[in-house]
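Notes from the pairing session

We agreed to fold both candidates in a single pass and log them together. This is the raw record for the first candidate, unedited. Please don't reformat it; downstream parsing expects exactly this layout.

Candidate A
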Amino acid sequence: VFCFFFFVVQTLGLSFSSASSLGLAVAPRQQQLHLITKSCPIIADVVGLLRTPRGGATRQKPAIQLTSVRPGESTEATAAGNNKHWFPITKSEFPQFAAMSLMMFLFIYIFTTVRDTKDTLVVSNCGAEAIPFLKLYGVMPCAMLFIVGYSKLSNIFSSKSTLFYVTLLPFFAFYTLFAFVLYPNRDTLHLLPTSGTTGAAMSLIRYWSFSLYFIASELWASAGVPLLFWTCANDVTMLSEAKRFYPLFAVVGNLAPIVSGKVMSAIVALQASSDDAAFGQTLKYLALVKIAACLGICVLYRLVNSMANAKLSLESSSGTKKSPEAKINTKKKPTLRESIVELSKSSELRSMATMVICYNACIELTEVLWKAILRKRFTNKSDYMSFMGSFSQIVGISAFVLQLFASGIIQNFGWRWAALITPLSMAAMAVPFFASVAVGDVKIPLATALLIGTSQNVISKITKYSLFDPCKESAYIPLGPEAKVKGKAAVDVLVLV
């Protein structure tokens, strides 16, 4: 309840504090919804962010040229933005939109595959109760090291493309190493069980390679789509395009869980048996697919940056002033400590960090209990992975359908109300799930609790992918380059636990 409450409060706080820069002011046709917020003085007092000037406030020019409306595009972009059709993308914008959507598809495909695999490895061998322990003592320290390393690399490499590749490639190197070296030699590498040593902690230490796979996959969950993809999207997408592009990026992207579930189920079905050796062959097939996806991401990243550079060259030839970003890159970059001090002054980053923390806390509390029920229902690794594949397909189909309406929801109801759908829907489904488990198997069968928990997880994920993520990412666009790189990395990676 505490996390859900602050999730809602910080979402409202971000909407009020950023209303001017993000264009989140309520449209005339939404005055009734705006009056609801104004009539809640308790929420206004808690948020404490209603001091933003109302009307007449001069909108500051964004620090990055790419986030402003370019000359010659305002009429076309406005026409597309006012278009009530579900696909408000112009013909000239479509190549960049298609490339970014396909890139998001590959990122989410890899995320879905490694998520299902890590859960299968850890839950089947160590139990669901080991996940919070592993996240606290394994994922959190590694996330902190990742932030420090990423910040250092951002200072070393002046090229954003180099930083992208250096961050991306080590993940796939590890997944390949695990599938072809670590798992086949697990009996030799893993520690032998000793008498009198039981519990989640000892299981995680004994199966250390599975724990390492879990940690890497948790880091990928925050370094993949939230950090690498959205950093690229924020760099090449204008603010006028973001309101139309961002909700629709995930239309293609959310097909990835469907494809991932189908591929995973098909590969598991090819197993001659359900033993660990056959499961190892499945991991090798999945690793090859990941390598192909990685190559696709690299090609698409190069393509979208080429399109963005071509637009900048066209502007330069037409007499447009040089992008301020070029001036920023010539300055001495601040240290990590200086960046943390400066970024901590941003109310927008503080609100986004709190929102992400609250979301992860809420989903963690519900998922751990749900996965514990899953382990009782599916004791075999292959059966567990097959169920997770089906679950991913359900998430993908549901998210795809919701994503078709997401752009209209954000445009018609505004950023504030679209962002609030995720915490409110999560809370509405969490209550019956916890209640069904609390009353016990006698009154409510385990299968019913599993169904309610699965529904809660599906709703939590599709509202996050379709509404919460696009709303959160659009809030980064008006911020400065330091906030886009180090601030975003801190919010999306460090606060994942």
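Candidate B (folded immediately after A)
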Amino acid sequence: MAATEVQTTSVGNTGPQAVQNNKSELDQLKEIAKKALQEHEELKKKYEESQRIQTLLKNQLVFKEQELIKIHNVSEAACDEFAEIKAQLEVEQLCREEAESYATKVS
């Protein structure tokens, strides 16, 4: 008989067989309730573990997002500095070329 099936006795039956049947039904119900409680406890533990893992992952995500923001800010500043240095280099190269050109004309 499956765990969720319970035999029922006729209501009018009050003899020793009926008492035995009622006791058997009660034992079956107790067993079903015991299994249900065990399953509930297992599911509760799994849920709590899932919640713990979710909280941990959320915290890791927040930390990684903060790191990405810092990296973005640093890389943006580095790119800006590189653009400034490149522009300055181009100006210096142009000045050097003009100075060399002027020097060859003056010589």
